[in-house]
Structure formats: structure tokens, C-alpha cells
Amino acid sequence: MERLLASFEKIKTVHPYVHHITNAVTMNDCANMTLAAGGSPAMAHAKEEVAEMICQMSALVLNTGTITQDAFEAMLIAGKAANENGIPIVLDPVAVGATAFRKRVNEALLEALDIAVIRGNASEIMTLVGVSSGRGVDVAVDLVFDEEKVMAFASEKQTVVATSGAVDFMTDGRRCAYCHNGVAMLSEITGTGCMLASVIGVGVGAGNDAFDSALLASVMIGIAGEEAYAAVNGERKLGTFRVQLFDAMATMSSEKINALGRIDVDGACF
């Protein structure tokens, strides 16, 4: 927890610039969540300028939610420029199992680029590790999540894998952590996973450890969700909940994280 609090304070000091090549559905929410979390967003997608743009940034978030061939080519250009300049990359392989093209694109990105953090739901992550699961953004109801396979995948790819769910699971192949913060209503508004990837981008963009950044972002989004849920008194007021989610993130503090964060690291509950 001390490392997470130090990472949070570093974000507030650095105010990192986070470049996104992300999906059209959630672009505005990702930009605003980046701002709320303490970063500054950029959203340029044209392959003619992404290499130049990324050199001015602190992190790169790639999201394949509304992927096209042009967007894929821009991601490769931006990703290679990021790798060459030591800029960390967060990959959100949205609905990776839905189509052959989508799966091929995500596998190509993983092959061509060094990725700091991969963030997805359980179905998306299990598809990446070789267990076909789910067609879209929803988690397959019969999914059996295999933590050992995910750990092996993270170790092989030398990356951090952050899996969202009722309990979020993070691993770098050696360390494991679980975040118990959050509410079910987070899954009822579009893009909370995409926004989580943006917050991870803010963390790594500030120069924080990738594993700590993934865990911190899960805690922050989870606490914000809990506060938003309390603000709507548990009623299904999804519009109000969405607004309150941004407000809660914008007013996040070390005190809240320390008091409300519920994490397990290697099985030891903090």
C-alpha cells in the first residue's frame, strides 16, 4: 500500500501526457477519465502524425474496440516509436475473440511491440492465452479463469496482465495481486474497462512500476465506482452514476486510497 500511495502522489506531481489510439465509442470518456486521474490526454489517430505525436508523450494506450486496418497500422507506427523512445504501452484487446481479424490484430501487436500492461476482462485475457472464450465485450458465463495460464503468459511476454472482474487480478508472471474494490454497476455503463486502461496509462506515464500502476488504477476505479454507487443510493440511475464516477475520480486522494483500498498481494490481505 505504501508503494501505491507513493505512485499516486507521483501522478499528481508529474501530470503525465497519455496518447490514445482508442475506440470511437469511449474516446471522450477516456479523455475525461485521464484528466480526472491526473493526466493529460491526446487522441490523434492519423498514421501520418502518430510517430511525431508519441515522442511528446509519457505513455501510449492502444484500444482495439473499433479497430480498422488504418487504425491497426497507426498503432504499429505509434507503438514502435514508443518502444524506441522508452515510452510504456498499455494494450486493451477489446473483444479479441469476436472475429478472426480482431484476434489477428491483437496477436500482431503483441508480437511486434513491447507492452507494459495488457488490460482486459476475463474472456479477453483467456482468449489471448489460448483458451477461446466469448465473442464480444461480455464475459462468457461458463468461463473458467486459469490464473496459472495467465501468469505463464505474462512471464512469456514479459508484461503485466490486468484482468477486470468482480475481483480484479494482476500478475507479471511472478507477483500476483487482487483488487476487491468496485461495484457491479460499473459493468452497466459503456467503457469503464477502457477508462481503466487510461488510468493505467496515467500511472505508467508518471514513471511508476507497471504492476503497481495496474493495481493502483484498479483500486482508484473501484473506489470511484463505490462512491458513485453511494451517490445514487444504489438505484439504477446510470447517467447520474456515470457523472458521479468522474467526480469521484477527480476527488481521489491518498487518504481515500489508504482507507478504502481493498487488495490482496500474494494472498496477504492489506
Layout of secondary structure:
Blueprint: H1 2-14, E1 17-21, H2 27-37, E2 40-42, H3 50-54, E3 59-63, H4 69-84, E4 89-92, H5 100-112, E5 117-121, H6 122-128, H7 147-157, E6 160-164, E7 168-171, E8 176-179, H8 192-205, H9 210-231, H10 238-250, H11 254-260, E9 263-265, E10 268-269
Parallel strand pairs: 1-2, 1-3, 3-4, 4-5, 5-6
Antiparallel strand pairs: 6-7, 7-8, 8-9, 9-10
What does this molecule look like?
- This protein is of the alpha/beta class.
- The protein has eleven helices and ten strands.
- The protein has helices at about 1-15, 25-35, 50-55, 70-85, 100-110, 120-130, 145-155, 190-205, 210-230, 240-250, 255-260, and strands spanning about 15-20, 40, 60-65, 90, 115-120, 160-165, 170, 175-180, 265, 270.
- Strands 2-1-3-4-5-6-7-8-9-10 form a ten-stranded mixed beta sheet, sandwiched between helices.
- Strand 6 (about 160-165) and strand 7 form a beta hairpin.
- Helix 2 (about 25-35) packs across helix 8 and helix 2 (about 25-35) runs parallel beside helix 10 (about 240-250).
- The longest helix is centred in the C-terminal third of the chain and has 22 residues, at about 210-230.
- The chain is globular and about 45 Å long.
- The termini are close together.
